[in-house]
Amino acid sequence: MILSQFDEHSVFSQLDAFGHQKVVYCSDPGTGLKAIIAIHDTTLGPALGGTRMQPYKSEYEALHDVLRLSRSMTYKSAITGLNLGGGKAVIIGDSRLHKSEALMRRFGRFIENLNGSFITAEDVGTNPRDMEYIRMETKYVTGIPESIGGSGDPSPVTARGVFMGIKACLKEHFGNDSLAGKSIAVQGIGHVGENLVGLLRNENAKVYISDIDEERLGQVAQKYGAIAVANNSLFDLDIDIYSPCALGATVNTETINRLKCSIIAGSANNQLADEVVHGNMLLEKGIMYAPDYLINAGGLINCYSEIAGFNKKKTLQMAENIYDATRRVLQKSKLENIPTNEAANKIAEKRIEDIRKIKASY
Ligand code: NAD
């Protein structure tokens, strides 16, 4: 009998369940650093993923989070056509209380020791300044400020990718991808949402917006000629497209029953409250859903461009490839009558498998 059968919370049981290649525990009592780096798969290239800093309640919770997030990065890179694998890191601690230059630089040294098999970027609880500190100890960090040669704010690239994902849905649903006269509700007009509203209004879409920040809502409505609505009424609007650009799990049993749109496509992570239940509900209701992890990959593309040394123009062009990738997913979903998120996963898995085979031959 193998050890992992005894304890489903053991580290090895979890690694088996998620299929990881390597997990590194980083401890430095001097700086208080406690971190876990998870490398899920490097078939396509070095594992890239952000470093998240959170006051996890337990080591188990931190490990579970880093395993889950790093695996999703493998899928994201694969479906986007990038030569990157999936990884992620978590630092256990309160980012407002426990962060220091020394802690970040010590963490950078752990990354350096992985010799390029893991590259990090900012995430929840970390910021460009932290990436600068990590950069002092290793070159395997991306998303550093433009002022020191990095790619800077990824939001315009993310918005462009979401915009192309929306157009791909229009093409598959209506037969043409014109936004003129189409109505769309954007929830959340932050960094990505505002850029997206600009692109949509440039093509004469009728744009409804909502946000909990009412002052900003009024400003963005006026700047772009969008219609501000109360957050709660968003799901009852008679619209063609719902675009979640604020927070996750807004596509759930309650909202699916209320939504009158034919397309859901936005930047927020984990839009479906339950991947299986709500992926199937959308399929049955005939609402076309552009998988979030595919159409919000602009941020990842921005990081990739920084590593590859591409300029802004090339980066935006790469984000436009999301149009074809989304169409392939939607077509597979239709052909096999499976939810779009499942179709995306299958395409990502096939790409990894195909490349694994060609790499095995030399
Ligand atoms: P942001 O923090 O700049 O903007 C989020 C906006 O949503 C804010 O204006 C906030 O007031 C609003 N908001 C928060 N709760 C809300 C609620 N309940 N209802 C309505 N509005 C609410 O974030 P962002 O960078 O624009 O990212 C938006 C989403 O896209 C996030 O889920 C993020 O994880 C995801 N995403 C962003 C990027 C990127 O490049 N920035 C890349 C991939 C995914």
Automatic annotation (TrEMBL):
Catalytic positions are: 88
Keyword annotations for this protein, in alphabetical order, are:
NAD, Nucleotide-binding, Oxidoreductase
Which positions in this protein are listed as binding NAD(+)? 188-193
Q: What is any one GO biological process for this UniProt entry?
A: amino acid metabolic process
Pfam families attached here? ELFV_dehydrog, ELFV_dehydrog_N
Q: Which family does it belong to?
A: Belongs to the Glu/Leu/Phe/Val dehydrogenases family.
- Cross-referenced InterPro entries: Aminoacid_DH-like_N_sf, Glu/Leu/Phe/Val/Trp_DH, Glu/Leu/Phe/Val/Trp_DH_C, Glu/Leu/Phe/Val/Trp_DH_dimer, Glu/Phe/Leu/Val/Trp_DH_bac/arc, NAD(P)-bd_dom_sf
> Which residues fall in a coiled-coil region?
none
* Molecular function via GO: nucleotide binding; oxidoreductase activity, acting on the CH-NH2 group of donors, NAD or NADP as acceptor
Fetch the SMART domains from UniProt.
Answer: ELFV_dehydrog
Give a yes or no for keyword Transferase in this entry.
no
Give the protein's recorded name: Leucine dehydrogenase
Which residues are in the Glutamate/phenylalanine/leucine/valine/L-tryptophan dehydrogenase C-terminal domain?
Answer: 152-360
Q: Please name the CDD domains in this protein's record.
A: NAD_bind_Leu_Phe_Val_DH
